[in-house]
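Write out this protein's structure.
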Amino acid sequence: MGPLLDRGRSRARTAGDAVVSDAGTPTASTIDPASMAWRSPRAWAVLTTMAVVGLAIDLWTKVWAFKTVAGSPVVVSREEVLSSGWLGRLIPQHDPVTVIPNILDFTLVLNPGAVFGMGAGKRWFFVVFTGAALAFGLMLFARWTKRNDTWAHISVALLLAGGLGNLYDRLVFGCVRDFIHPLPGVRLPFGIRWPGGGNEVWPWVSNVADLWLIIGIGILVLRTLRTPPAPRNTATS
């Protein structure tokens, strides 16, 4: 009986080695390659459609804002941006356009940095960083998502649209065109101030590309939190 039992345990371990080792850690991929998103035309269609539509909306809203918000069209010249020590002088004085009082204003800002103006003056760093982030997003889509993970595909597409929208601005204009100001004039409670001295709840002006980035990251985080852990083989020898 001893040799028979040993052979039986050996066969059980061999069959289970594709899932987990004796220590309980994966020893081979448990994901069917045919189920991966990069092999699915539908997944690619969702990704490319949402990314193209998101990018088009971002670029169109920037064109619209810089044509109408200041009362007259504001033309952004790459040469002027690169030679200007202060981008604020390239935008004419104008009153914000109130969309919803204390909720949303439109006002024109040229941003030399990243999201919310962080990292001003490091344009080429952000160009390279954005290119690397876009490549990572495509790898995320191909290696991490399955063909039916529609919300994951949408989130990656929004990240691509946001990254491409601001990358386009940096390459074409030398800065990012912003115009969305949420919660204008709403102050932090108890006299609290941001490190820069401002006391608005949301002192930053952004754009639709930034909105896509925030939504895309939010969907990915929620999906990660709601995804149950992979089941482990609990069989014992």
